[in-house]
Specification:
This protein starts with a helix and ends in a 6-residue tail after the last helix. By secondary structure, the protein is mainly alpha-helical.
Length: 106
C-alpha cells in the first residue's frame, strides 16, 4: 500500500506543479497598458468587433512605443484572433486568466 500511496502522491504533486506553474507574460507597470487590456476585456465581453479592432490598434501602439512587451503582445494578439474567429467565450476566459496573472507594482 505504501508504494501505491507514494505513486498517487507523486502524480498529484506533479499535477499541481504543472498546473500551477503557468504564468502569463507580464504587462509591466505601465498604466496605459493595463487600461488597454481592460478595454480589450470589455470589448471581448460585449462581442464588439469594432471595439476589439480599436483595442488592437492601441495595444500595437503601446508595443511599438516599448510600453508593452513582445511576449504579452503576442499573447494578446492570440486572444484577439480567437475572438475574431467567433470563440468569444474562450477568448474572454483566456483574457481573464491573463489579467488575473498580472503582478502589478513589481
Amino acid at each position: 500500500m505504501n508504494g501505491r500511496l507514494s505513486k498517487v502522491l507523486a502524480i498529484g504533486s506533479l499535477a499541481l506543479a504543472v498546473g500551477g506553474c503557468w504564468a502569463p507574460p507580464q504587462i509591466g507597470g505601465d498604466e496605459k497598458s493595463f487600461k488597454a487590456v481592460d478595454a480589450l476585456y470589455t470589448a471581448v465581453s460585449l462581442r464588439e468587433t469594432k471595439l476589439v479592432d480599436q483595442c488592437e490598434g492601441d495595444l500595437k501602439g503601446l508595443r511599438e512605443a516599448g510600453s508593452l512587451g513582445e511576449d504579452a503582445s503576442k499573447a494578446l494578439e492570440s486572444i484577439i484572433a480567437e475572438a475574431r474567429g467567433g470563440a468569444w467565450e474562450d477568448a474572454q476566459s483566456r483574457l481573464a486568466r491573463f489579467m488575473e496573472g498580472q503582478r502589478r507594482g513589481r
